[in-house]
Amino acid sequence: MQRFRRSRVLNRRSFLTGAGATGAAVMLSQFGRAQVSDSAVFDGDCESEPAVEMLFDWRAGKQVYPTPGQMAPPPDWVQFSHPSLLPPFLIPPDWTPYAFWADSYDRDGVPKWQDTPLYLPQLTLNRVVSPDEDAVFEYAVGTVQPDLLTTMDVADLARRGLLGADVRYRQVCVIDDQLNALAPGWFTADRQRTNLLLTFGNAQQLPSLYLPGTVVTYNTMYGPRRHMEELMYDYFLRFMFQFLGGGGSNDPTPTPTG
Fold first, then answer.
1. Measured between alpha carbons, how far is 221 from 99 in angstroms, rounded to an integer?
2. What are the two backbone dihedrals, phi and then psi, of residue 188, each rounded to the nearest 5 degrees?
3. CA-CA distance, 24 to 34, in Å (whole number)?
4. R_g (Cα) of the chain, nearest Å
5. How far apart are CA 169 and CA 42, in angstroms?
6. I need a labelling partner for 246 at 20 to 30 A (CA). Which of 9, 13, 125, 168 fits?
7. How many CA atoms lie within 13 A of 239 on its CB side?
8. 167-188 pLDDT, tens per residue?
9. Torsion from C-alpha of 130, 121, 238, 2, nearest 10 degrees
10. Is the pTM of this model over 0.70?
């Protein structure tokens, strides 16, 4: 069983160039059908997974909970404040939050997460882990330099950032909106052994002769496939509700800012 407490965390600093956090609300901007551009490429059947179908329905503004008030976190959830990310948000009292930073990567492209703040991190991550350590919700923001990454590059970075360089998975579906002029984004759903891994976010390239980079925002959701619908309903959607204030809309996708 995969464990996620303090795995793959290094306690050294290398102070490379980078940029700080961006708003978390842009992380969900691209996977809902109303939000993707005409150039988006679809591969596979995303809604073959009930948890993904629930996520899409919620993002599209459909009623997932019996009443709108039930989208909000329950009253016993507790506040967690990441030292570098705003705003603070509520999590279940028995889930464990972790704050990570990365300013370098190993040769396989895996972020070298560290659990102490860095002066100039390239990526800043918030990870929340379930009591039995087999389910994870996380988001990451920052600017990866000096590389110009595609949406699929960042999707792979998200997978490896959680599960390591040797992760093996079977693709369920991909929505790749790399050519979106406002905010290139993606959504992926993968089966990893008996688990389901979802990644989605934005990758905005910043070409430059002097300091090129890619503004990155992404979410990952991970858990046992047989429990993923329950995890989505009870936890993951309620995490996201705090950033978005509800389900999706047809508003234009905001452009990430560094």
1. 16
2. -135, 145
3. 20
4. 17
5. 18
6. 125
7. 26
8. 899 999 999 999 888 889 999 9
9. -20
10. yes
